[in-house]
Structure formats: C-alpha cells, structure tokens
Write a structure and sequence with these properties.
A hairpin with a 4-residue loop joins β7 (107-114) and β8 (119-124). Helix content is 17%, strand content 40%. It has 169 residues and is α+β, with helices and mostly antiparallel strands. It has helices at 3-20, 128-138; strands spanning 23-31, 36-43, 48-55, 60-69, 83-90, 95-104, 107-114, 119-124.
C-alpha cells in the first residue's frame, strides 16, 4: 500500500472511530442579568447531542443540539469549525435557543436568547471567560461592556483567518 493510500485509510478509520464514539463535556453559561447555569452535553459526535443544565435560580433545563454546518475540512479535522443550534426547555417555562461553534469534539462556545430576548453566553469544555474571549474575537458573542451611548466607533484593516473558529491575524 502506498503512503498516500495508507494515510487515506488511516484518516477514514479515524473518522469512523469518531462517529462511533460519544463524549460528555461540561456546560457552563451566564445570562446578561447574572443568572448562571451549568450542566453537561452528551454528544454522539455524529451530529446530535442531549443537554441537561440547572440554573442558579433552580430551573432545570433539557434539550437537544444538532449540527447545522460542517466545514469541508471536517473529514480531516473532525468537529473543529462545526456550527449548530441548541434548544432547551426549562422547568420555569423558559425556552432557550443558542447557536454554537465547535473548537474540538468536546469544546464549543456560543450565545443565545430566551423567548423574552434575555441574552446569554455559554461554553462547553472550556471556561466561560475563554468562550467570551473567543466569541468576541470571532464576532459571535456580544462584548461584556457596551460602548457609551453616542460613542463613535470606527476601524479598518486587513487580515486573514488562522483558525477554523474565527481567529484572525
């Protein structure tokens, strides 16, 4: 078997193993009003996951997540750069919808809102601070402090992306 054929076979075998496996990762999050939540994400790594979380107010939330986008390089670098949505139903009547970006098979970050427009950020397999930093760099998570009303913000520049999760140079 040639080196290229062997490499292709190894990549295919790795892809099969990833799809056949599952992973459980910790989940943390925070709403803009300071309410926090934590729980777990149980992913089958094939495109769907089950989420359970409890908020600092005592509400229990459960729901599912699914992949909505897989980059072309997913066959070579599994999970990285995938995007998806998560929908949670909570015991206090809330419905929360979030969008996420995977940085690995057991790590992701994102933001979302509940049915009343209450904003949140969340992280899977990383700290909330890391998720906020990554999200702000990628423009997917709102900054923690808004500019002063009437402040003029302008900038320009050029750059290129250096990672699948939106880091640019």
């Amino acid at each position: 078997m040639s080196g290229k054929a062997l490499s292709a076979a190894a990549l295919a075998a790795a892809a099969v193993l990833v799809v056949a496996c599952s992973v459980t990762a910790p989940l943390v999050g925070r709403f803009d009003d300071g309410e926090t939540f934590s729980g777990t994400v149980d992913s089958n790594l094939a495109g769907s996951a089950h989420i359970t979380a409890t908020s600092s107010t005592g509400a229990r939330c459960t729901g599912n997540s699914r992949i909505t986008y897989k980059p072309a390089f997913s066959a070579v670098v599994p999970c990285v750069g995938q995007r998806g949505i998560a929908i949670l139903e909570c015991s206090d009547g809330r419905r929360v919808r979030g969008e996420w970006l995977a940085t690995g098979c057991a790590s992701a970050y994102g933001d979302g809102v509940d049915q009343d427009g209450k904003r949140m950020i969340f992280a899977m397999g990383m700290s909330l601070e890391e998720a906020a930093r990554r999200g702000q760099a990628a423009g997917t998570v709102p900054p923690t402090a808004a500019p002063a009303p009437g402040a003029r913000i302008s900038s320009n520049g050029t750059g290129f992306f250096v990672t699948a999760d939106g880091f640019a140079v």
